[in-house]
User: Which sequence fits this backbone?
């Protein structure tokens, strides 16, 4: 599959070209071209808002399908904690984990194990003062992406640990290699996700040399297959490994809590995330040592590939955390560096030109042009605002003809002109006939 | 080349709107591709000056001049003026009312921070007539 910068695909037959996703995109990355929504991959941060708001369900996240199990000799399921929260009355994670094995996976490895480990490391780092003053969690890929394109001054604040998905995949793979003696390529680590952005980041990891995640399945695909299996599991196999704090990462605030920072801050929902990043950049946040940001409302439980309402899911996560789950004795995990291989780099997606002078010239043209539009930000032109249309025109990807008000004005002028010509010729005729 | 000019009106006692002008400048500078550190310094300093106009001076107007090698911000108000600039420049000095402090402003760090983040700062003020604060950050 060609990498396009995000995981959203469009069902062209269902897209009616309305302005709903256009207006809701937090980075103005969508345009309506020839009546269909198009995403600028470089600007998109994979937040899933457009999938969430489309009334026609024309937007979908591209993920893998269960047939991937056939591509490997040995498969390990890596369930995101959000999966546990999809089932009413579920308390024992081992039941869900056992059901995953019944579904066809050879083994399971909880992503929350990596969450536990990262939280422990962060607690120590905070204690020994080894982190930036206001460290921002790097576990939400959308947050990492918005920081790298829109808040580059905050890149040094990003926690430089691998994401729980990557870390757990590394561990799971190494354990499976030890256990089976198979080479790396024959073992499939399959992440079970509520989040489309994680699918993108497994194909195109940031700060990682390579991804250990071989495929990503959506919770919404796995759910209906797991649901019927659960009832028949009386004595689940003990497969859980993580403690309750790692499970809590699924809901907003869980990671901040697990970090044990003396002062932390958490926010969820992309608009709120942006507000916090703005405030941090403007130095309006003084105390928070640890900052947890989740693009989805409620945290990862609010991911677009999850099924359950995020608020119900959140309360279930708390319930699961409170329930004592029998776990595999921890044992030792494979040696591995938990840190990212390299720093996440700036993506100048907002920049009008790589040369400041040229950028200024373009900006002045944009501002001049923008004045000629009426400022309604109606979106009929296919751009989310008059400013965006002006920018598109100056950047060579749009035309003034797109503005419906300008078109109307042109027609009005033309009609007035025609009327005048008509009147004049009538008068002339009258005059002639006299 | 001619500098690019941005103009803003800051309204009095509009605490929720305060920061809009500096927010817009920040966005503009980002799309022009200025270095993140320069942008941060300009937007923090300008935000403080903008807030001061709201809480101490019944609003005013801000003119920003952007050149490739320098960003200049001029804040003009017709407020009460500053009787003792040396005192006002001291960290922690503030004449903000209890109401303003209750809203989280008035820590007395605004002017010292502006000084810290800019390469040039000039304050012209006449008591009873107003204040004009000009600052610039070199790129
Ligand atoms: N534009 C202004 N007009 C009048 N007085 C001002 C202005 N800006 C600052 N001041 C005075 O200088 C003092 C110090 O300003 P500053 O360092 O920003 O602290 P703060 O705004 O928290 O009081 C203010 O309390 C106020 O008395
Ligand atoms: Mg102040």
Assistant:
């Amino acid at each position: 599959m060609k990498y396009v910068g995000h995981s959203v695909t469009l069902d062209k037959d269902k897209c009616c070209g309305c302005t709903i996703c256009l207006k809701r995109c937090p980075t103005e990355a969508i345009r309506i071209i020839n009546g269909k929504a198009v995403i600028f991959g470089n600007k998109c941060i994979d937040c899933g808002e457009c999938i969430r708001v489309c009334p026609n369900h024309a937007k979908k996240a591209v993920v893998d399908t269960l047939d991937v199990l056939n591509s490997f000799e040995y498969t390990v399921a890596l369930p995101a904690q959000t999966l546990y929260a999809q089932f009413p009355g579920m308390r024992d994670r081992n039941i869900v984990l056992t059901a995953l094995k019944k579904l066809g996976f050879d083994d399971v490895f909880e992503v929350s194990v990596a969450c536990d480990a990262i939280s422990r490391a962060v607690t120590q780092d905070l204690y020994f003062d080894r982190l930036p003053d206001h460290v921002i969690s790097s576990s939400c890929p959308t947050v990492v992406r918005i920081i790298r394109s829109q808040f580059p001054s905050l890149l040094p604040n990003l926690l430089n640990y691998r994401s729980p998905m990557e870390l757990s995949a590394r561990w799971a793979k190494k354990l499976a290699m030890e256990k089976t003696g198979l080479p790396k390529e024959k073992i499939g680590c399959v992440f079970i996700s509520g989040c489309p952005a994680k699918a993108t980041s497994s194909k195109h990891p940031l700060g990682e040399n390579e991804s250990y995640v071989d495929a990503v399945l959506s919770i919404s695909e796995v759910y209906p297959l797991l649901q019927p299996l659960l009832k028949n599991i009386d004595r689940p196999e003990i497969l859980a490994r993580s403690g309750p704090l790692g499970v809590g990462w699924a809901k907003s605030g869980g990671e901040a809590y697990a970090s044990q920072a003396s002062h932390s801050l958490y926010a969820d929902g992309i608009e709120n995330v942006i507000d916090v990043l703005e405030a941090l950049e403007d130095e309006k946040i003084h105390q928070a040592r640890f900052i947890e940001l989740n693009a989805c409302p409620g945290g990862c439980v609010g991911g677009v590939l999850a099924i359950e309402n995020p608020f119900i899911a959140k309360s279930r996560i708390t319930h699961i955390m409170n329930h004592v789950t029998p776990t595999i004795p921890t044992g030792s995990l494979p040696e591995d560096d938990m840190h990212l291989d390299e720093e996440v780099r700036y993506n100048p997606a907002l920049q009008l030109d790589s040369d400041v002078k040229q950028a200024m010239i373009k900006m002045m043209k944009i501002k001049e042009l923008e004045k000629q539009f009426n400022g309604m930000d109606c979106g009929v032109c296919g751009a989310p605002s008059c400013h965006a249309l002006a920018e598109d025109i100056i950047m060579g990807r749009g035309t003034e003809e797109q503005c419906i008000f300008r078109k109307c004005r042109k027609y009005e002028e033309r009609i007035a002109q025609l009327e005048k010509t008509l009147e004049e010729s009538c008068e002339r005729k009258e005059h002639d006939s006299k | 080349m001619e500098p690019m000019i941005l103009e803003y009106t800051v309204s009095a006692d509009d605490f929720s709107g305060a920061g809009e002008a500096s927010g817009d400048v920040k966005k503009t500078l980002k799309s022009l591709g200025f270095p993140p550190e320069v942008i941060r310094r300009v937007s923090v300093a300008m935000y403080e000056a903008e807030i001061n106009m709201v809480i101490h001076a019944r609003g005013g107007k801000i003119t920003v001049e952007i050149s490739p090698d320098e960003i200049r911000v001029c804040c003009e108000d017709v407020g009460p003026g500053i009787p003792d600039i040396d005192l006002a420049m001291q960290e922690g000095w503030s004449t903000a009312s209890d109401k303003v402090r209750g809203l989280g402003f008035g820590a007395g760090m605004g002017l010292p921070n502006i000084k810290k983040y800019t390469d040039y700062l000039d304050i012209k003020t006449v008591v009873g007539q107003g204040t004009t604060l000009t600052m610039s950050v070199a790129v």
